């Protein structure tokens, strides 16, 4: 247009009173929609009307005709004007021709592109390209016992304690495997503090002036020093065991508790003894629980928590950045393991009253004359550890992921503790990577494979990672699958998991087979919750994911007749002993365990909606509310002065009802949802993911009470603790505190209501009847 305007100007010699003005007005679409043309005469008229002068009725002195005077043009100039108009017409014609030509060519180009792309299948995000039955079949083909045998041999090592050169070598091997499979792989480095046995000298004890005993086993994070006290046999060291001693009016102040290993963790045993004002704890393996030789040493830790206790609540990426701090879960009393032979020398000489009838083991409890001196000289050591990660990225929601993890370190050989789990982890990574790379499987969400270190010291590697990325992980990681200790026997099968995952686990057991048939029929025997489900232990690596970070998690294991594997925490956790416990079926059992874990992970990344049953938690909450309601009524009847008469459980019941309605509303939304709507599926999945996280109490500090889950955590804020507190109030226990109970009771109520509100979704959908 500018070129045309310039040409016209030249044609008309640039005379100031005869020109054409173009007024281009641009519409909202960016097109030139109006062209206003005004000749000089029009302009003159506008000027005249504005009072600048009017020459329209004056004639030129040369006597030329009026029209010629009007246009100020001679016939020659009129010829030039005609040529200019013709040129404008030619230019306009050429522009119109080129425009039409482009319009004609555009459909041909688009058509050719469309034909080529129609032959290429695309992941639209609306649905996975592979049927679930085909996914299961592929995993079965890729993941086999024959391939596992080679990996088990590669990752077996006689000594790979956390932070050792052997541990680092295994970490590099795992990292290289992940890279070989084409995965994005990386490592996290942590500097942690642990207690190791004394480099010079020994931990010792002397009983009744006998010869000094020097156990080689130890318990990390024990208090150090020397104490003297009378021995008291305390069975398993559970709460009810100490309650039985209290009922007999046994003096426990300053006593050295002799306790059997089993049922609960070492840390829980020591914490329970410390509440009884004990001075020390000695732990041994009783033959009725562990049929092992009398001279076998045992190893473990007694931190009532997980992670590095010297960086509580924050990660140990670089310890110099943080102020000195200690976990509230560190014990203040001494703790030491002893062998069965050492324990027998003590138990055979105990005097005092007879043990309770329900207790097993030796007959006497011990009295004030059974004096023992215990010395613990463990040393605080700094170690550098590495966690190793590899990821298979999802094709629809790559920022949402399931984590599959396994401990890599061990006190000694650790064949059952870490080698089997690490081998299954690596083989699952290879198999699923191959499915994605070569078989056309496209997971909707991502899968993160994690190899942890320092698991034997209390899931330190896993917990430090959680602490380092807790704000991100709690929003994006929707599940954790733990592979530690998955093969310890042949005849039993147990699962500990978030209730959100129970339905998925049960359905998976009905799909996975081993040489004896379907796992569900073999182990569940038509009663899944009774025969398979067990509580999650605090020493499980899945526990901090669940109770600290609010991520639905699970652990599982093939076990010897549903009992414990006797070589955990010993130097005898070898391939030969595990083969003896499984009739040499370790590769076959590991294959089944790997396919079970793989099925759950693949189902979680395959389906449009996460396979989580939010109604399961309603049953758990309702069970606790029923217990609390009954106990409150009992306390108000028996000791009405302890609680206000106005106290009612109605608020808690209403909050539970709100959760039930919100869960039912979510189920209705799921049934009525359009699975082709990617955004709708993502919104529903986010509501599901928020459930576990919102059961974490917002009213307690993660440094003081790291396991904030009110249903599965640990501390006075839990519903379990509330029921125990009511029992203490009912019996007028001096440890009971009515004011503390009322505070925790109110905060637990609002935690449940908050979870219900979050589950409901939008603010206008909230159900708050409290």
Automatic annotation (TrEMBL):
Q: Name one GO cellular component term.
A: external side of plasma membrane
The free-text function statement in the UniProt record for this protein reads: Cellular uptake of iron occurs via receptor-mediated endocytosis of ligand-occupied transferrin receptor into specialized endosomes. Endosomal acidification leads to iron release. The apotransferrin-receptor complex is then recycled to the cell surface with a return to neutral pH and the concomitant loss of affinity of apotransferrin for its receptor. Transferrin receptor is necessary for development of erythrocytes and the nervous system. Acts as a lipid sensor that regulates mitochondrial fusion by regulating activation of the JNK pathway.
Q: Which family does it belong to?
A: Belongs to the peptidase M28 family. M28B subfamily.
* PANTHER family, alphabetized: N-ACETYLATED-ALPHA-LINKED ACIDIC DIPEPTIDASE, TRANSFERRIN RECEPTOR PROTEIN 1
GO biological process terms, semicolon-separated:
embryonic hemopoiesis; erythrocyte differentiation; hemoglobin biosynthetic process; intracellular iron ion homeostasis; receptor internalization; transferrin transport
> Any idea where this protein resides?
Cell membrane; Melanosome
Transferrin receptor-like dimerisation domain location is 648-759
> Sorted alphabetically, which keywords does the UniProt record give?
Cell membrane, Disulfide bond, Endocytosis, Glycoprotein, Lipoprotein, Membrane, Palmitate, Receptor, Signal-anchor, Transmembrane, Transmembrane helix
Q: Check the UniProt entry and state the signal peptide residues, or none.
A: none
Output the superkingdom of the source species.
Eukaryota
Q: What InterPro entries does UniProt report for this protein, alphabetically?
A: PA_dom_sf (IPR046450), PA_domain (IPR003137), Peptidase_M28 (IPR007484), Peptidase_M28B (IPR039373), TFR-like_dimer_dom (IPR007365), TFR-like_dimer_dom_sf (IPR036757)
Query: What is the name listed in the Swiss-Prot or TrEMBL entry for this protein?
Result: Transferrin receptor protein 1
Every copy of the Peptidase M28 domain together lies at 387-587
GO MF, any single term: transferrin receptor activity
Bilayer-crossing regions:
78-98
Looking up CDD domains in the UniProt record yields: M28_TfR
Which modifications occur after translation, per UniProt? Answer: Stearoylated.
The record's subunit annotation is:
Homodimer; disulfide-linked.
Tell me where in this chain the PA domain is found: 230-291
Topology with respect to the bilayer: Single-pass type II membrane protein
């Amino acid at each position: 247009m500018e070129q045309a305007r310039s040409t016209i100007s030249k044609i008309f010699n640039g005379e100031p009173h005869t020109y054409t003005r173009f007024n281009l007005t641009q519409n909202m679409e960016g097109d030139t929609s109006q062209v206003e043309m005004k000749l000089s005469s029009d302009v003159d008229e506008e000027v005249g009307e504005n009072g600048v002068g009017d020459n329209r009725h004056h004639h030129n002195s040369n006597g030329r005709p009026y029209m010629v005077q009007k246009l100020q043009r001679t016939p020659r100039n009129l010829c030039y004007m005609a040529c200019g108009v013709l040129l404008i017409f030619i230019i306009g014609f050429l522009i119109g021709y080129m425009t039409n030509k482009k319009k004609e060519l555009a459909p041909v180009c688009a058509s050719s592109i469309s034909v080529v792309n129609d032959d290429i299948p695309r992941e639209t995000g609306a649905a996975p390209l592979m049927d679930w039955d085909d996914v299961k079949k592929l995993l079965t083909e890729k993941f086999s016992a024959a391939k596992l045998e080679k990996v088990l041999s590669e990752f077996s090592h006689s000594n790979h304690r956390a932070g050792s050169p052997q541990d680092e070598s295994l970490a590099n091997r795992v990292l290289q495997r992940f890279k070989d499979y084409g995965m994005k792989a990386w490592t996290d480095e942590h500097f942690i503090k642990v207690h190791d046995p004394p480099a010079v000298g020994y931990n010792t004890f002397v009983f009744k002036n006998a010869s000094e005993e020097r156990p080689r086993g130890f318990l990390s994070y024990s208090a150090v020093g020397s104490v003297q006290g009378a021995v008291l046999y305390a069975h398993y060291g559970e709460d009810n065991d100490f309650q039985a001693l209290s009922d007999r009016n046994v003096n426990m102040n300053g006593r050295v508790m002799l306790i059997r290993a089993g049922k609960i963790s070492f840390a829980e045993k020591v914490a329970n003894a410390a509440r009884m004002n004990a001075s020390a704890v000695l732990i041994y393996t009783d033959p009725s629980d562990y049929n092992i030789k009398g001279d076998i040493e045992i190893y473990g830790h007694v931190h009532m928590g997980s992670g590095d206790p010297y960086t509580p609540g924050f990660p140990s990426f670089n310890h110099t950045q943080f102020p000195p701090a200690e976990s509230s879960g560190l014990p203040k009393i001494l703790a030491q393991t002893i062998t069965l032979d050492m324990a027998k020398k003590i138990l055979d000489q105990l005097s005092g009253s007879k043990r309770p009838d329900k207790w097993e083991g030796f007959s006497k409890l011990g009295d004030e004359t059974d004096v023992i001196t215990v010395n613990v000289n463990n040393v605080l050591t700094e170690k550098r550890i590495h966690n190793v990660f590899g990821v298979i990225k999802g094709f629809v929601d790559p920022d949402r992921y399931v984590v599959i993890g396994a401990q890599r370190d061990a006190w000694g050989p650790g064949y059952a503790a870490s080698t089997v789990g690490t081998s299954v982890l690596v083989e699952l990574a290879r198999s699923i990577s191959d499915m994605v790379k070569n078989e056309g499987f496209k997971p909707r969400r991502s899968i993160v494979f994690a190899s942890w270190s320092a698991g034997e010291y209390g899931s330190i590697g896993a917990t430090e990672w959680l602490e380092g990325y807790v704000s991100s992980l709690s929003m994006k990681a929707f599940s954790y699958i733990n592979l530690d200790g998955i093969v310890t026997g042949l005849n039993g099968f147990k699962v500990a998991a978030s209730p959100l995952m129970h339905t998925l686990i049960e359905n998976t057991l009905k799909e996975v087979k081993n040489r004896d048939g379907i796992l569900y029929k073999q182990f569940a025997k038509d009663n899944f919750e009774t025969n398979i489900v067990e509580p999650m232990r605090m020493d499980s690596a899945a526990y901090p994911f669940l109770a600290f970070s609010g991520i639905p998690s699970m652990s599982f294991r093939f076990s010897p007749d549903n009992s414990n594997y006797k070589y955990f925490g010993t130097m005898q956790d070898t391939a030969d002993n595990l083969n003896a416990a499984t009739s040499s079926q370790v590769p076959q059992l590991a294959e089944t365990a790997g396919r079970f874990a793989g099925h759950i992970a693949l189902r979680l990344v395959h389906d449009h909606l996460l396979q989580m049953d939010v109604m399961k938690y309603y049953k758990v909450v309702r069970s606790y509310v029923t217990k609390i309601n009954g106990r409150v009524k009992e306390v108000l009847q028996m000791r009405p002065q302890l609680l206000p008469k106005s106290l009612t459980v109605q608020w808690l019941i209403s909050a539970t009802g709100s959760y039930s309605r919100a869960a039912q509303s979510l189920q209705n939304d799921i049934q009525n949802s359009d699975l082709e709507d990617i955004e709708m599926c993502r919104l529903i999945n986010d509501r599901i993911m928020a459930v576990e996280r919102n059961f974490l109490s917002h009213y307690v500090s993660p440094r003081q009470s790291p396991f904030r889950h009110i249903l599965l955590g640990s501390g006075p804020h839990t519903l379990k603790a509330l029921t125990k507190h009511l029992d203490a109030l009912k019996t007028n226990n001096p440890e009971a505190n009515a004011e503390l109970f009322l505070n925790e009771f109110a905060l637990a109520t609002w935690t449940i209501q908050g979870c219900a509100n979050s589950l409901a979704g939008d603010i206008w959908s909230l159900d708050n009847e409290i």
